[in-house]
Amino acid sequence: MLVGERRELLLARLAADGKVMAKDVAAELGVSEDSIRRDLRDLAAAGLCQRVYGGALPVSPAVADYASRTSIAVGGKDRVAAVAAALIRPGSTVILDGGTTTLAVAKALPEDLEATVVTHSPTVAVALLGHPGVEVFLLGGRLFRHSAVTCGAAAAEAAQSISAEVYLLGVTGVHPEAGLTTGDADEAAMKRTLARRAADTYVLASAEKLGAASRFTVLPFGDVAGIITDADDQNVQELARQGVAILRA
User: Fold this and answer.
1) % pLDDT > 70, the chain
2) Is the pTM of this model over 0.70?
3) d(CA 199, CA 187)
């Protein structure tokens, strides 16, 4: 089998099974594990998969640039946003993460809501201008353009004065084995910092993020109160078996 054919097979396996184990494919094709690992490394460099220990997982479409992500899974994000918005009680303080799903949450909030929203996303803050009863605290810091959020030491320091009931967390991947992931180390660290400032953290995960993985772990499943998703597949079923609370959107 030619190298190109082998890589096409790996991508097809990834799409069909949701993962590829290098050892298994090497045995099936009668080639070395090193050859399969090399194939996976090149596919990952091209953005076609996410390498993990022993093999690879599907790459999340949420690693695309911010503008492109606004048109991905719009219906799913709106369904997730509606459930998430219902978690924000009048008079409460909530932390809204950055990203297109949390932007949908901001737009889904009742116009007469009275609450306090803390966010490190300028786009989320602007979306709340039409909610006169919502007091908005915008955390400053270095702007991470991919997700249009602030990160770094200044943003993390500003977050230390926050105490919230709920944190609505956005990620790029939710996988039963790889966990909750995102594509940037500093952004992952900022998400962990914000999670420590809230009593409960809920993950916003429209269907395209289920079964996908990115490079950096955000939180273990045990640290979140639940996952809000419109997906209903084997990944969701496995997460439920692991004891993760699933809020259906």
Assistant:
1) 95
2) yes
3) 20
